[in-house]
Amino acid sequence: MIPDLFTQLPPVRDDLETDTSEAQDETVEACLPFLAGQDDLFEYNEHGVPRINREKHIKFLHNSLGRLPGGFVAADASRPWFLYWSLSALTMLGEDVSHYREAVAETARGMQNDTGGFGGGGRQLSHMATTYAVVLALALVGGEEAFEVIDRKAMWKWLCSLKQPDGGFQVCMGGEEDIRGAYCAAVIISLLNLPLGLTPESPAWTGDSSSNLFTGLARYVRRCQTFEGGISGQPDAEAHGAYAFCALGCLALLDNPRRIIPRYLNVPRLISWLSSRQYAPEGGFSGRTNKLVDGCYSHWVGGCFPLIEACLSPAASASAGQVDNSARAGLPPVSESLFSKEGLIRYILCCCQDQTKRGGLRDKPGRLSDAYHSCYVLSGLSSAQNQWVLADSDDDKSATGTAADPAWTVLPPLEEDVQIFDKRDRIRPIHPVYAIPDENQRAIRSYFLEKDSEGGFL
Amino acid sequence: MPPKGKAAPKPKGSEANKPSSTSTSAPPPPASTTSTPSSVPSTSPSTVSERSQQRFDESRPNEAAREKSGLSSLAPAEQVAWISSQFARSSAARARLGTKAQRELWRHVNEASLPVRAPKTKPSPGSWGKDRAGQHIGGYTPARFDDRAAKRITLTALEIASRAFKDTRERARKGLLDPLSKEPVVLAENEIDQEKNRRRQMAALRRELYGQTMGQFEQDPEWDDVVPIPQDEPEMALAAIAYPASYAEAISYLRAVMQKKEYSPRCLRLTEHIISMNPAHYTVWLYRASNIFAMKLLIPDEIEWLNEVALEHLKNYQIWHHRHLLVDNYYPSIADDADKVSQFAASERAFLAAILAHDTKNYHVWSYRSYLVGKLGTWGADELAAVEAMITDDVRNNSAWSHRFFLVFSNPAHSTPGTAATDPDPAVPRDIVDRELQYAMVKTYLAPQNQSPWNYLKGVLAKGGRRLASVEAFAAEFVAGLGEGEEVEQVRSTHALDLLAEIYAEKREKEKADLALRRLAEKWDRIRVGYWEWRRKCLDVEG
Ligand SMILES: [Zn+2]
C-alpha cells in the first residue's frame, strides 16, 4: 500500500561521509517511521497516509493569534506575520476568520506609520515584509472596515521612496535590497491598485515619466537567477527556494506569465533546479542543493510549479490554430505534474503534522510546530491538491506595460481514485500568486478599483 | 434622653428574632468581659492586628460584648455609654439631635471618658493589606511591622533626596546661582554616583515593600530627562506579546529617543541592551547605525563589538545588513590605502571563517561575503583558498561552491558585467574555464552522487560557451550498461545520467537521450518522474 519509493533509501548513494551526508542520513532516519505508517499517534488510511488533524491545528492557530508569552520577544518585530500565517492557515483549513476583522483592523492601525506602510509593531519602521503581511491579513478578514485602515496615498509614496535605480526595492528605509522586496512590492501595488508613477523623492526618479514603480523590476529578478538555475535573494548569492517563489510571483504580477517568465529567466535550468529539490524517500522539498527537506518549502518550492506549469501551458487560442505562446520558450506543456504530488502530500501528512496535544505543522519530525510552518505547509498542500489554469483572455491588453491581470481559475477536484488522501482532507485552494483564496484577492482589488473609478485615490 | 430612647428599641429587633434555642440556652457568661470591657488586661499582642484590635476595644467600651450578645445584654449604664459613643463619633448623627440632647450626650461622653477620636473602622486582619509575598500585614509581629514602617520612612527620605538631586541638577543645567553663596550651582561628580546608589536603594525598598519593580532606566539618573513612551496597543490587539518588564521599559525609552532623533552614547548603549534581548528588531539596528554615523564613531570598534554579537546570534540576519552598512561607510576612508584594505579584508576573512565554522551554510553570512568581495575587490588567491578549504572540508557544501562560482565568473578582471549567470561570457579566459572544469571533475570523484560539482560543471560549461558533449566521456564514467538489463545496468550518479541525457539531446541522439530519461524515471530517480517525463517530451520539441 505504500510504494517502496517512500520506505527505502535511494538506489544511488555515496560512501564518503561529510557533515552534509550525516545530516541527510539523520533526517531520512527520522522520517522513515512516519512515512512507513509506524507511528502510533496516527491513524493511517489504506494508502498509509494519516488524516489531517484539523481540530488540533485550528486550535493551535487560534492560540497563535492570542496573547503570546514573554518568550516571543524575539518575534516583536514580526507580529504582522503571525496575523498572516495564522489567518491564512485557518482559512485554508476552512475556518471563517471574518470575526477577527475588527481585531485585525485595530492591530494593523497601531502598526501603520503616517509616512506610509506598516512596521513590525507600533512605532517600528515600516518594512516591506510586515506591510505585505498586514495587507494580506486585512484581505483575509475582508470588508470595508479592514480595507479602509490602509493609507494608500502614504503607502504609494513610501514605496516610491524604496524603489531603486536598478529596478529593485529596498525592504525599508536604510534596509537591504532583495527579491523579497520585489515580490512584496508587486503584491502590495497590485492588491491596492496603487498608481505606478514615481514621486520626485524616489531614488529611481528620472525627472520625467520614463520610469515607474515596475520599471527594471523584471531585470532585477533576472539578475537573481544563478548558475544552478535557481534564484538567490540578491544577485551573486546561492539559489534558495524561498526566493524562487518570490521571483516567479513577482514576474507573474508584472505581465502574463506565459510571456514574461521565459523572457527573463532560463526556464529549463530553473525547472531542473526546482525539480532537484524533491527528495526520496522523504517526498518533501529542500530549499537548496544538498540541504535538508523542510515543510515550508512545500510552498516556496511547491508553489513555483503552478506558475511554471502555467507558463508552459499552451494558450487557449493556440488550439484554435493561432500562435502558440509557449513556443517562445520552445518548451512542451506538462502532462500531469513536474513534481511528485504524492511524495509531497505524503511528506506533509506523515511528517509535518504535530500529532501531540500541541497541534500545528512543522519543518520535519523532531521540530516544534509554529505558525510559519503551519501556513506554508498548508499552502503547499493546497497547491498540491488543487490544479490552477491560466486563461488566455487578455494577453494583448497586458502588453500596454501596466500590471497584467491574467485570469487564474482553479479546476474542480481531481478524480477520487488518484488521490492518496481522504476526500475530507482537501484544503481550500489559494491563488497561485497572492497565496490567499481567489475571492479574497478579488474582493480587496475590486474594492479599491471601484473606489478609484469614483476618484478615490487622491 | 434621646440617644437612649432612640437607640434602645431599635437594635434589638434582630436579637429578638433569634431562634429561642439560642436565647433560652444559657447565655454565655459574658459578665466578666461585658461588665468591664475596657479593663481587659492588655496582654502584649503577638501581631499588629491584635494590637490594633486592643486599641479599638479600648476606644469602644462594651463593643465586644454588644457584638457578641446584643445591646440588651449590657447593663443600662453600659447601654448609655455605648450609644453615646456612637453619637460622639458621628457628627452627622449629632446634628440630628436637639441642643439639649447634645448637651446630654457630651455629659455621658465625659462621664464614660470615651475617646472621641478613635479608630474609625473596626480592624480586621485583612484590612492591613498584603505584602508582596501575599502575606497579610496584619499578621506581622509588631517588631516586624515597625521595621516596615521604618523602611517606608527611609524610602520617603530617599525620594526627597532624589528630588533634591534632580532640582540641583536642573539648576546647574540652567546655570542658576545658589541663593545663599551666590555661586553658580554645580553638580559634583560624586553626587551622580550617590544618586545612582540612592536609586538602587529606592528600587530595593520599593520591591520589598510594594513588590514594585523600578526599571533599569528609571533607576539611572542619566535617563531622567527622557519621558518613556509606553506601548499603547488596543486591548484587542492580536498576537500581542507579554513583554518582560525589562524589555518593555527599554523599548519605551527607545521610542522616546528615536522620536527626538537623539544620537548619543547612551542611545548606543540602549540599542545594545535591546539587541541583547531581541536581535531581530530591525528598527533598533538601523537606529544603531544612525547613531554610529552621526557620532562618527570608529567603525572597526563597532565591527569588533558586532563580531561577538554575531557569534551569539548565529541565525540572525539583521546583524549582516548592519555589517554591510558599516563597510559601506568605512570603505571610502581606506580605499586609497591598499595595505589597509588588505588588512581589513584579512580580518574579515578570519572572522567569516570563525562564524562559518559554526554554521557552514549560513545564507546571510555567504551573501555578506559575496558583497564584501565586490566591495573590497578581493577576488584573488586568498579568498579562493579560503573557499577551497571549505569545499575540502565538506565537498557537499553548496554555499561554498556557489561562492566559488561567483569569485571566478564575476571577477571584473575577466568577465562581462551584466551577463546572466546561465549565459556564456566570452570574456572568461579559456584556461580559467579549463581549470574550473578540472576542479569540478576532481571533486566529483570523491562522491559522484553529490550534485554540487555537477551543477558547477554545467555552470562552467555554459559560461565558457562549451558544448556539453565536451564532458561526455567524463559523465559516461559513472554509468554502465544502460538499458542492458537490471543485472548489467549500473549508475553511480543520477546527475551523470541526467547530463548524459542532455548531451545525447544536444547531439540529436534522441533515442539514447530518451533511454537515459526513461531509466531515471523508472529506476534511478523515481521521485522526479514528472520532470523526466517532461524532459522526454522536450526531445520531441527539439526534434
Ligand atoms: Zn522551514
From TrEMBL, chain A:
Assembly: Heterodimer of an alpha and a beta subunit.
Family per record: Belongs to the protein prenyltransferase subunit beta family.
Enzyme class: transferase
Function: Catalyzes the transfer of a farnesyl moiety from farnesyl diphosphate to a cysteine at the fourth position from the C-terminus of several proteins. The beta subunit is responsible for peptide-binding.
Name of protein: Protein farnesyltransferase subunit beta
Recorded GO MF terms: protein farnesyltransferase activity; zinc ion binding
Chain ranges passing through the membrane: none
CDD domains cross-referenced by the UniProt entry: FTase (cd02893)
The UniProt record lists the keyword Metal-binding: yes
Comment on bound cofactor: Binds 1 zinc ion per subunit.
Keyword Metal-binding: yes
GO cellular component: a single term: protein farnesyltransferase complex
Annotated InterPro entries: FTB (IPR026872), PGGT1B-like (IPR045089), Prenyltrans (IPR001330), Terpenoid_cyclase/PrenylTrfase (IPR008930)
Catalytic activity as recorded in UniProt: L-cysteinyl-[protein] + (2E,6E)-farnesyl diphosphate = S-(2E,6E)-farnesyl-L-cysteinyl-[protein] + diphosphate
GO BP annotations listed: prenylation
PANTHER family referenced in this protein's UniProt entry, alphabetically: GERANYLGERANYL TRANSFERASE TYPE BETA SUBUNIT, PROTEIN FARNESYLTRANSFERASE SUBUNIT BETA
SUPFAM superfamilies recorded: Terpenoid cyclases/Protein prenyltransferases
Organism taxonomic ancestry: Eukaryota, Fungi, Dikarya, Ascomycota, Pezizomycotina
Required co-factors: Zn(2+)
The EC number(s) this enzyme carries: 2.5.1.58
Keyword list, A-Z: Metal-binding, Prenyltransferase, Repeat, Transferase, Zinc
Automatic annotation (TrEMBL), chain B:
Enzyme class (EC, first level): transferase
Cofactor(s) annotated in UniProt: Mg(2+)
InterPro entries (alphabetical): Prenyl_trans_a
An MF annotation (GO) of this entry: protein farnesyltransferase activity
EC number: 2.5.1.58, 2.5.1.59
Domain of life of the native organism: Eukaryota
Alphabetical keyword list: Magnesium, Prenyltransferase, Repeat, Transferase
Similarity comment: Belongs to the protein prenyltransferase subunit alpha family.
UniProt-recorded name of the protein: Protein farnesyltransferase/geranylgeranyltransferase type-1 subunit alpha
Source organism of the structure: Cercophora scortea
